[in-house]
Specification:
24 strands, alpha+beta, about 15% strand, Phosphorylase Kinase, domain 1, Transferase(Phosphotransferase), domain 1, 4-stranded mixed beta sheet, Trypsin Inhibitor V, Chain A, flat
Length: about 725
């Protein structure tokens, strides 16, 4: 047998001389997208990378093969497409400097998420993390490979929907897994038929885990939401509610809606404008009414009105009550009725037994009377007949969640209800308060009539006292109405700008900027309210934001352009600097010529303090396309010349600067400029009638500006009495 090679799709081997895999039909001549790793690449000398399976704003998923164990795996690569690119013909990722801080922050969140999944690796309904490592400027996670199809495809092969009887056996292990995720502070945010798989063992498995920014609109990464299954709070970071366990409750209820009705639920974003979501039972009459009601409660738009936890959802779904109808009895049948009170007071229907015994939910027990025996166990989902007790005072409470239908004569049997203490005292207390107020008013009127001049409480004092009482009352009322109903999130380690936008509708965030050697610029490193503390919505939280490093080492500039050197300054942590184009620094265009701090020249390798009030002045030689006339004289004078061009004779000076000369009547020549009349300096411009050596100031290249060192016009033009001179066309040297 000849040499064999791997199929990069199914990871089975086939003959080297063939291109079509006989197992799966994959053609290995299919071109690869250069944004992704080339199939056949080996990571960590162990994992063979196959073809692309899926991608989103967080990263890329590939098929893979573990060379050490000889088994198939799934390889997940962190690669946020809006923050980085792939180096051509390599597996290495290149990150733009401006996105480096965000790239690192999201990578830390990605790593933390997968570390949390490692703790749950033994749950069959969750992906198993086998390995994690860093390579190619990014992080990779290795998951086990499993056989299965998406739940959406499974539904298509089963008439588009499932019965409640089948779904009630299929979903409990998945609900258990989601509850475990929540206990480990993991919110999935993407539960849908495209992220839930069903295995050949008829078990559901949850996939599609990503960082929160991918599951929220405008949160820093390219988002991916599943229409119809995403909660309203995921469509905006400034929504009316935070994301939490209730977000996954919405997703799982939307999934049940699709599974039981065969119809995709209306998207929550559209429901915010017009809520026309149809009740599941109206689409499928075989769905139990209580199941339909619970699904609708789990899909409420306002998170505060929604079922909040998976535990509550399970309890409501699988504790299905049967209708209870009291039976009217004759008063003479008291003895017979007494025999049946144990049945009436044991009205509890056992929960549905889950496939996973860990998911069993205990029913709520109604208040038990000590004179009644314990109820006998009954079969699941069977409705038992109930009889009305002869003594209603023992059955005046109905267990939570149980329906209770009443006969027309129901009030006749219950007209002698026991009145509690509060009800008995309510009326006397109200009457006493009213009487006290009336007596007080009468007493005040009497005092006023008897002694009109006497006023025990002056008007001013009375007004002041009243104002104080009103303010105290308002303060008490406000304190009483403030609800500590919002949990303070962890803000440390997040970018201030993104955090401010995300939580602007929930908190007032005050920033204090300070230098910090341990954090990137614009990253929050401290907050005054601890994460997890319950606070009132709208409260003020102070955060400390890093301005970057307090001190840094000045990097070298040789061999770098001005823009490249500016990036090097930012990478070194230097934020206080200015770029100044020097007109008299003779060097390669668009390169740095020298560095100065407070008029003292500094050099690469010296220390620079961002905390001081000084700035690092970076002088550079402008590019050839820049004109010196774009810079003011002040700027030019500020930049002292490093090397002056040698000019020794008036002839050489005239070669540098020449103009159309003219005659003048004043000594030294008269004209628009010293040295003669004309549009440019005349009289030979920079040379007089003789060969007097004249050195023009290179700091002031524009000949329109006279040299402040030689203010005498005669020094510029000595063309005789009339100041005559000659010159050619004006040229820039």
């Amino acid at each position: 047998m000849g040499e064999r090679k791997f199929c990069y799709k199914c990871m089975e081997k086939f003959d080297m001389d063939k291109h079509i895999c006989p197992s799966c039909g994959y053609d290995d001549t299919t071109p690869n997208n250069p944004m992704y790793i080339t199939p056949g690449t080996i990571l960590r000398d162990r994992y063979l990378v196959g073809i692309l399976m899926d991608s989103n704003g967080e990263g890329v998923t590939y098929t893979g093969y573990d060379i050490s164990t000889g088994g198939r795996v799934i390889i997940r690569e962190y690669m946020p497409v809006n923050l980085c690119t792939r180096v051509r013909n390599k597996a290495t990722i290149s990150v733009n400097y401006n996105n480096l801080a965000k790239y690192k922050a999201f990578m830390a969140e990605y790593t933390e998420l997968n570390k949390s999944l490692v703790k749950l690796r033994n749950n069959p309904s969750l992906p198993t993390v086998l390995d994690m490592f860093s390579e190619n400027n990014t992080t990779y996670t290795i998951f086990d490979h499993f056989d299965g199809v998406k739940l959406m495809d499974y539904l298509k092969d089963n008439a588009g929907e499932l019965s409640w009887d089948k779904a009630s056996k299929l979903f409990p292990p998945l609900l258990t897994a989601i509850s475990l995720l929540h206990n480990n502070a993991i919110i999935h945010r993407a539960i849908s038929p495209d992220t839930v798989y069903i295995t050949p063992k008829n078990e559901l498995r949850l996939a599609g885990f990503s960082v929160s920014s991918v599951r929220t609109v405008n949160a820093g990464l390219e988002y991916e939401l599943f229409r119809g299954y995403a909660a309203p709070e995921q469509y905006s970071p400034s929504s009316s509610s935070h994301q939490g366990t209730w977000t996954d409750v919405y997703g799982i209820c939307a999934l049940l809606y699709r599974v039981l009705t065969g119809c995709m639920p209306t998207d929550s974003k559209d429901r915010l404008t017009k809520d026309d979501l149809i009740e599941p039972k109206s689409l499928n009459s075989t769905i139990p009414q209580h199941v339909s009601n619970v699904i609708m409660e789990g899909m409420r738009l306002k998170s505060r009105q929604r079922i909040n936890t998976i535990t509550e959802l399970v309890t409501r779904l699988f504790e299905a009550p049967g209708p209870v109808k009291p039976i009217k009895h004759d008063a003479s049948a008291g003895n017979e009725a007494t025999k049946n009170t144990s049945i009436a007071n044991s009205g509890s229907v056992p929960p549905v037994q889950f496939t996973d015994p860990n998911m069993q939910v205990l029913p709520q027990q109604p208040p038990q009377q000590p004179v009644y025996p314990q109820p006998q166990p009954v079969q699941p989902m069977q409705q038992m007949p109930y009889e009305q007790p002869a003594y209603p005072q023992y059955n005046n409470q109905v267990p939570y969640g149980y329906g209770y239908e009443q006969d027309d004569d129901y009030d006749d049997d219950y007209r002698y209800e026991r009145v509690n203490t509060v009800d008995r005292l309510k009326v006397p207390v109200i009457v006493a308060i009213l009487l006290f107020l009336i007596l007080m008013i009468i007493a005040l009127i009497f005092l006023k009539l008897v002694d009109p001049g006497r006023n025990p409480i002056s008007g001013d004092n009375n007004s002041s006292l009243t104002d104080d009482m009103i303010e105290d009352q308002q303060a008490t009322t406000e304190a009483a109405t403030v609800k500590l109903d919002t949990e303070m999130p962890k803000l440390v380690g997040k970018f201030y700008d993104l955090t401010l936008e995300k939580y602007k509708d929930f908190f007032t965030i005050e920033a204090i900027y300070e230098y910090n050697d341990d954090e990137e610029a614009d990253v929050i490193y401290k907050q005054d309210i601890e994460p997890g503390e319950m606070v009132a919505q709208g409260c003020t939280v102070r955060v400390w934001v890093s301005k970057g490093k307090e001190s840094a080492i000045i990097p070298a500039y040789e061999g770098f352009t001005v823009m490249q050197y500016e990036n090097r300054l930012k990478e070194a942590g230097i934020s206080s600097y200015s770029l100044i184009a020097s007109a008299n620094d003779w060097s390669i265009p668009n390169t740095v010529t020298k560095l100065m701090i407070d008029n003292d020249e500094v050099f690469p390798g010296d220390f620079f303090s961002n905390k001081s009030n000084s700035k690092l002045i970076v002088y550079y030689c402008p590019s050839e396309t820049e004109s010196y006339n774009n810079y003011t004289a002040t700027q030019a004078v500020t930049a002292s010349p490093i090397t002056d061009p040698p000019i020794s004779t008036g002839t050489q000076a005239a070669t540098m600067y020449s103009g159309n000369g003219g005659s003048g009547s004043n000594p030294g020549g008269a004209g628009n400029n010293p040295g003669g009349a004309g549009s440019n300096p005349g009289g030979g411009n920079w040379q007089g009638g003789g060969d007097t050596p004249v050195t023009p100031d290179p700091v002031v290249p524009d000949p329109v500006v006279p040299d402040p060192v030689n203010p005498d016009p005669g020094n510029w033009s000595e063309g005789g009495d009339n100041g005559a001179g000659e010159g050619g066309e004006f040229a820039y040297w």
